[in-house]
Protein: VWFA domain-containing protein
Organism: Herpetosiphon geysericola
Amino acid sequence: MTFAYPLLFWLLPIVPIVWWAMYRRSRGEVVTMRFSDLGMLRGVKPSWRIRMRPLLISLRAAALGLLVVVLSRPQYAQSSERVVREGIDIQLALDISLSMKAGDFDPKDRITVAKEVIAEFIKGRKDDRIGLVVFSGNAFTQVPLTLDYDFLQTLLGQVQTVRRPDGTAIGTALAHSVNGLRNSTTKSKVVILLTDGSSNRGDIEPAQAAEIARALDVRVYTILVGKPGGGEYPVHDAWRDETYLIPAPTAEDEVALRDIAEQTGGIFFRAGDEQGLRDVYATIDKMERSQVASEKLVRYTEAWQPWAAGALLLLMLEILLRNTILRSIG
């Protein structure tokens, strides 16, 4: 229990002073009678009614004390905490060109590892809208920004490499991802672009796409996957019904991806194996966290009523006794 005006309790020491003043006054209001001889009254003791007279003063003083408590406004405080979380809008741009089938992430290929790591990244997010853009020689939205992580995971699991149009349109993919964030009202907008090659397709150059991202205040993290020297990926020849292993190109020129990250306030990463890629996404996950604020709410319930009822009851009892069994003469 709390009190709105606790300083009023300094009035409580006045109560015993008031009691003493009323007691002294009652002693001075004794009704007297004249007797020619007081000898016959020496053995007479005061009746219980006389001895109970100070009770009336005590009841009134106690009522006064309770009124002081009422004036201090006793209250019950109920506190609650409301957590406000501001999410981040994240676009995941995933390269699905044929070279992502390269098996240099032994025993898995690049696309399989990338999908598994991205799925784990999504599981670790909360209250963030996440979208998925896939690209090769062109780019398209697989999943628009959503909070439905189960739906996102389902469509991510269905992503496969494509043969046509082959190539790597990094600029187009970045511009397409940024366009999906154009109407975002969140303070933090992020693109995580994963590829294994250099930009060799598309109508938009990576530098142009980076300028668009910077203009819209979108931070871009770029990830280059694959071991130096690359691996091999299978290509099926439908005419001959044969499958060939073709050396996978590995982008040794990191300049474009570094420039994109630096221009937009992001970071460039390189991952040559599965653990390296997991570390990259773990780092981004720690850097891009939702802003959380807590707001404490306190609700007060007035509790003066029982104290007021007690004071009223004492006053009524005092009046009742004063006018009945403890009634004075004269």
Notes: Residues 257 and 315 are 86 Å apart (CA to CA). The mean pLDDT is 83.
